[in-house]
Amino acid sequence: MTDGVTNATIPRGESIEEIDFERAVQLLADKRAKGPAAPKGKKAPAKAAAKTAKAPAKTTKAAAAKPATAKAAAAKTATKAAAKAPAKRATPRKTGAASGS
After folding, report:
1. Neighbour tally for 27: CB within 10 Å
2. What is the pLDDT of residues 51-62, one digit of tens each?
């Protein structure tokens, strides 16, 4: 049920015929007071915690690792560019049956 702004779900124990105007107003007020639902499926905070745990180990090798990562990044972009190249089309084969008899 809705008032045009807030949507409220009718509880399982109640049917639509049993709900009067006062009960509908109460359900809508309860829903407004509850606030919006929390978003589901966000895993970013867990990944951020994992990255912060690995960060101290990387800082000791940061100076030595930077040149190698630059080369690796250049190699990856070259590989990606080659992979995105359009595929060559196969030339159609000529068959003996098409030579008009």
Report:
1. 19
2. 555 555 555 555
CA pair distance 56, 51, nearest whole angstrom: 10
Report residue 61 as tokens: 């090798």
Which phi and psi angles does 4 have, rounded to 5°?
100, -20
Domain range annotation of the chain: 1-36
Q: pLDDT of 76-101, one tens digit each? A: 666 666 666 666 677 777 776 655 55
Whether pLDDT at 20 is above 60: yes
List all residues 6 or more positions away from 6 whose beta carbon is below 8 Å from its beta carbon.
28, 31, 32
Q: Say how far apart CA 72 and CA 69 lie, in whole Å.
A: 5
Could you give the CA distance from residue 21 to residue 26 in angstroms, rounded to a whole number? 9
CA separation for the pair 63, 79 (Å, rounded): 26
Burial of 28 (0-12, 13-18, 19+ CB in 10 A): middle
